[in-house]
Structure formats: C-alpha cells, structure tokens
Design a protein that fits this description.
- It is a single chain.
- The chain has a four-stranded antiparallel β-sheet with strand order 1-2-4-3. Strands 6-5-10-11 form a four-stranded parallel β-sheet, sandwiched between helices. The chain has a three-stranded antiparallel β-sheet with strand order 7-8-9.
- Among the domains are: 84 residues, 2-Layer Sandwich (Gyrase A, domain 2), CATH 3.30.1360.70; 95 residues, no CATH class.
- 51% of the residues lie in helices and 10% in strands.
- With 588 residues, it is of the alpha/beta class.
C-alpha cells in the first residue's frame, strides 16, 4: 500500500505532465497554511525559470487538468503561483478503509529483510543499575521494536561488563572476608555449592568497597589483578565464584529491566569473547594493521579526508592487557561469525562518539566486517535535573534506577488514588502502567542526541505532550467503544464513511500519515517521530470527540462510520505505544 502523500503527488505529477511540464514538479507537501488548504504544491514556482513562464500561468494550466480529479476536491492557483489542494472525502475514506484491512496499516514490508543487532544494555555485573542506564535501555528497546515492526530480524544484546578487574576486585574482597570458602582452596577438587556465598545486596556493597581499597592500597590492587589473571586463565574456584556473581547479578538485572518493560534476546558479555582476542590480535599483526606505539599495540584509523585528529585505536595496553576497544572488536568478530548481521546499532552516551568512530574504522580497516555492513552509534544526551545538571539524588549521588522508578510510580499512584474511582489494587496496577508511559514518553519524545530535563510533575501530567495524556486518549476511546457495544451497537463489518465535519476530516488526514512516519522512524532510528505523530493524532481525536456527539447520534450508519474510525485510531495508537515500549490500562 503506497503512502498517502505519494498517491496525491502522483495525481499532481500526471497533471503537470498533461499540461506539458516535467512530472517531478508535481511533488505535494502538507500545507504550511492549514487555514487555507490541506496540501500544497510549489512546482509551478520551481518550473517558472525553466519554462520562461510566469508561475501563475503554469499553475492555472495544471488546475485545468485536475477538474475531474478523483483525488482532489478542489485545486486553486494563488499568486504568485502556489497550488492549494484539498482532498476528496471519498478518496480519503477509501484510503482509510484500506488501512483498516491491512495488518500494519499500509506499511510496506522490505523485499529483503535485514538482520540487525541492537546493542543497548552495557551494565556492569555486581553493580546496581542507575539513572545513567535509563536512556540506553529505553531508546534501544524502542528501536528494536521499530525495526521488528518494519519487517526485519532483530536481536537485542545486553553486552554485559562481566570480565576484567572488577571481577578480580570482588574475588579479592571475598577472600579477605571469607578466606575459609572452598573456592580459595587450591587442593579442593570436589563439587562447589549451588548456592552463592553472598546476596545481591552484599555483592553491591562488596564491589565499591573493593574498588575504594584498590585506589588507596597498591598491594590490594596487585592482589586483585592477580585474582583477575587467575579467573581469566581458568582457575576452578575463581571460575565457580564468577558463575555465582553472574547468576545473582543477572537475576537482579532481569528484575530491574522487566520493570522498564525491556528485554534482551542475547545475554552476552565481555567474557564470551575473551577467547577470541588472541587470534584476532594475531591476525591484525599478520595482516600489517597492528603495530607498536609507545609499547602499546594500535591500529591507525586516521584517513586523509579527516579534518580533525582521529587517534589510533588501541588494541592492547603496554602490559599486554585488553581494553574495551579489544572486547568490542572481538564482539564484532563473534557477531559476524554467529549471526552475520547486516547492521549493528549501538546505544551509548554521545560523548563516546570518538570512541565508536575509532572502533568502527578499525573493524572496517582490518576486515572484521563486510564493506556493506552498517555500523551505527546512536549517541544520546544526558537526563538532567531541574538545575540543568546530570540527574542526581538529593544527597548528590547517582540515583539507583529502581528508586527513580519507585518515585514516579508513587507520584502516579497519588494522582490516580486521589481520583477515588477505583479500588486500591486496581489503582496500584494502573498507576504502574501509567507511570511507565510517563517515564518512557518523557524520554523518547526528545530527539535522542539532545539532553533533557527530568521533570516528574510535567511527565506525570494528564495534559500536554505526555505519556499519560496519550493513554488517557486511548482509555477514552475504549470507554466509547464499550458503551456503544452496551447499547447494542455492532462492530463487525462496519466501515469508515466520508467525513461530515472538519474535525473528522482532520482526524482522518492525521491517520493517513502512519506508514510514512513509521518508515522514517525506522530509517532514522528515531522513536521521537512516533511520539510526535501520536501526540498530533491524540489532539486530532480529542478535537473530533468534543465536536461530535458520537453515542447520541440517531443516524445509525453515520454513527457506525464514526465507531469504525475510532477503532482504527485506537489500533494505531496502541501499536505506536507498544513500539515505544509501554501499554494502556482499561481505565484511568
């Protein structure tokens, strides 16, 4: 099913051609003066110089060719040569009924679906998620859903930080506290306990304690580095402890990500590619890409066309240790061997732009990816407090993500409970659903690269450009549809009819933009486009609702047409919020 704007542009192109002009002058755009017309075409202005003719003369000739158009209700030429266009109600009705019949409302599916990996987690194990993890999770989850909806095969990877010195620090601190544990007995060759010798709360206290000690005590740090080496070389007890750290941490991570309605297909980490690093490094050396520089092993990634300095990509430190660059490159090797993706999308702070530029260039230069493989870093801005600085607790520390979620849940519960229209249990469940919409929409409605202010009062408002406002609109439609059915109205087989008022037509025109919007949201990896679309759609619906007495309409066919329009509006809104990663309650 072609996009609505394409269809009306085709009609205009035929008219330009019939009048003796180039067809591509007939491109139609949404009117920038909706008080005058619905769409416009500026082709006559563009063609004036080419055809040595006054633009108004060209415009008038095109108008003549559209007198019997099945698409336009009226076309007028206005000085100095603009074409103002309004759509025929019958054409609009037909397009929307076709959208109703299509599972994805007319979104064209790709001839050759891509395989895409979205890397959008990045938490370190043994540490609680904090507000800094929020944006990658929310934006990444939405991009994954958008790509899937657009017809592609998508895998979301958490990409855990589960290897390296942090593990050695935890093991060292555990040994100080519980030296009697079997894991530290080099002579023990039996089975290790199934139960971890620590809880998640204890683990979350152990790591910062060990980290602080290592900064103050060189001997402690040396011991931690030795423990890291033992773990990575496969010492049984250390590997068994690491497995406990992983199982306890991953269970807690799953619980916290679940609260955000975020899930991953792959729970892979740096440890999964540790064994791939030696062969990868050796090949880079053998192929002449990697060389020593000040003791470290690097790959030059600067290009002649660069206008700014691009430092080499470091592969190994001077002591032979791997870095984030190394594990990220080895992860690319793993993904290409096991999944063969056409595209890899990375969600990370925009301040890491240079880092990803180096890694991507290195991957291309050394042949880790095919020339056509797309590598994309979506750099996001920071979530700031009302003071404009990165969001922190009242004490000035980094806020745990679960505390942020709890705070917005409590604020939403207070607003819903004040309404006193539902019982405590329903109010609690509803407030969690609405709070998630407030949190996610508050983030996703911003372009990813921009910083934004976390304003709990604005985000939880039921008015304005917010998640709760969108949900309230969906709940209002559900309520109308339920009452219609209670009154004996039938929804099977009903179709959208020609618009009978301006508010209805405006709602219908808003709906037609769905497939063009979704296509752009996929191509640009831009969830904020969905937010902008559904905000306009919700506004158009609410204007129509206030202008139209739907449930008291006596003319049953007209009423049934409106109900069909409401059903389509609801389906599209629900599809869009699912792509953003939240849902709507039955009532609010």
């Amino acid at each position: 099913m072609d996009k609505f704007l394409n269809l009306i542009s085709e009609e205009m192109k035929k008219a330009f051609e019939a009048a003796g002009y180039q067809a591509d002058l007939g491109k139609v755009t949404i009117s920038n003066r909706p008080d005058l017309c619905e769409y416009q075409c500026n082709g006559a202005m563009a063609g004036a110089k080419q055809y040595h003719k006054a633009p108004i003369m060209i415009a008038n000739e095109v108008v003549e060719k559209l007198q019997d158009s099945a698409v336009f209700a009226d076309v007028s030429a206005v000085m100095p040569g603009f074409l103002n266009l309004n759509i025929k109600e019958a054409f609009l009705q037909s397009y929307l009924n076709e959208m109703c019949q299509d599972e994805k409302f007319g979104l064209a599916m790709p001839e050759k679906p891509q395989k895409i990996i979205v890397d959008y987690g990045g938490p370190n194990v043994a540490k609680p998620l904090h507000v800094g993890h929020l944006r990658s999770a929310i934006i990444g989850e939405s991009i994954k859903r958008i790509c899937r909806y657009a017809g592609h095969e998508v895998l979301g990877d958490i990409h855990l930080g589960d290897w390296g010195l942090q593990m050695g620090l935890i093991v060292t601190e555990l040994k100080k506290r519980q030296p009697e544990l079997l894991y530290f007995d080099a002579t023990y060759d039996g089975e290790y306990p199934n139960e971890a010798p620590f809880t998640i709360s204890e683990l979350e206290e152990i790591y910062p304690t060990a980290s602080a000690k290592s900064k103050e005590d060189p001997a402690y740090k040396a011991e931690a580095m030795e423990a890291t080496g033992k773990l990575q070389s496969g010492v049984r007890g250390y590997r068994a402890l690491w497995q406990h750290i992983m199982s306890v941490s991953v269970a807690d991570l799953k619980k916290n990500y679940s609260a955000l309605n975020v899930d991953f297909d792959l729970w892979k980490g740096e440890s999964d590619v540790h064994d791939l690093i030696p062969a990868m490094v050796e090949k880079m050396k053998k192929d002449g890409f990697a060389h020593e520089s000040e003791g470290a092993l690097v790959v030059d990634v600067k290009e002649e066309t660069d206008t700014k300095e691009i430092p080499p990509c470091m592969i190994l430190k001077s002591d032979g240790a791997a870095l984030y660059n190394t594990t990220d490159l080895a992860t690319i090797v793993d993904r290409m061997e096991n999944y063969r993706p056409d595209s890899m999308i990375y969600l990370a702070d925009k301040r890491q732009d240079l880092y990803f530029e180096q890694v991507f260039r290195c991957a291309r230069k050394t042949g880790l990816v095919k020339p056509e493989t797309k590598l994309l870093h979506i750099g996001f801005g920071t979530m700031n407090g009302k003071d404009g600085k990165p969001f922190k607790t009242r004490e000035g520390g980094v806020m745990r993500l679960e505390n942020l979620i709890r705070g917005i849940n409590e604020e939403m519960h207070r607003k819903i409970a004040d309404n006193k229209s539902m019982g405590e249990e329903e109010a609690k469940e509803t407030s969690e659903v609405v709070a998630l919409s407030a949190l996610k929409y508050g983030d996703l409605s911003n372009q990813a690269s921009k910083d934004y202010i976390f304003d709990i009062d604005r985000f939880t408002s039921f008015e304005g450009d917010t998640g709760p406002y969108i949900l309230y609109t969906i709940v209002r439609i559900k309520s109308i549809l339920n009452k219609y059915k209670e009154q004996g109205g039938k929804i099977d087989g009903i179709q959208i009819r020609e618009a009978v008022n301006a508010a209805e037509k405006d709602l219908m025109l808003q709906i037609t933009g769905f497939n063009a919007m979704l296509e752009a949201a996929f191509e640009e990896a831009a969830p904020h486009r969905i937010c902008a679309y559904i905000y306009d759609l919700a506004n158009a619906f609410n204007h129509f609702y206030h202008e139209t007495k739907i449930l008291t309409e006596e003319e049953k066919e007209k009423q049934a047409g409106w109900i069909a329009l409401l059903m389509l509006t609801k389906r599209i809104l629900e599809t869009c919020i699912d792509l953003l990663g939240f849902s709507a309650p039955e009532r609010m």
